[in-house]
Amino acid sequence: MTTAHELYNRWITELWSGQPVAAEIVTEDFVGHWPSRDVHGPAELQQIIEETRNMLADLTFRVEVGPLQEGDLVAGRWVGSGRGPEGPVAFTGNDILRLAADGRRFAEYWTGTSAG
To answer: Residue 14 sits in which domain range?
Structure first.
């Protein structure tokens, strides 16, 4: 059985690198909370990831802290970097994800991202 740490690793290293694995790691009724909108289901999640990756070339993420788990919540802090139209960019963020009842996939997500 996949652990929460392994699932978070897939979230960062596979999903956010553009691999089409959303349906494998989030539930059908997944809800992701971004500052400007909510994202529903694996297909819409995969779409917002593609949109993000299309804005920045060579987008990568490196986990700085975590993942940490408390009950059904998993959290991590990361640094993202890539190249935008005006050159290199870097930003930091925090992920909080809620595991589904069976612990095999994520059911909900909250993000916080900062430039710099």
So the answer is: 4-115
How many domains does the chain contain in total? Answer: 1
Q: Give the separation between CA 104 and CA 106, rounded to whole angstroms.
A: 7
CA 85, CA 30: separation in Å to the nearest integer?
Answer: 32
Q: pTM of the full predicted structure?
A: 0.90
| 104: nearest Cα among 56, 67, 72 | 72
Q: Which CATH number belongs to the domain containing residue 57 in this structure?
A: 3.10.450.50
Contacts of 3 (CB under 8 A, 6+ apart): none
For 9-27, the pLDDT digits (tens) are: 999 999 999 999 999 999 9
Strand partners, 80: 61, 91
pLDDT at 112 (0 to 100): 87
Distance CA 94, CA 97 (A): 10
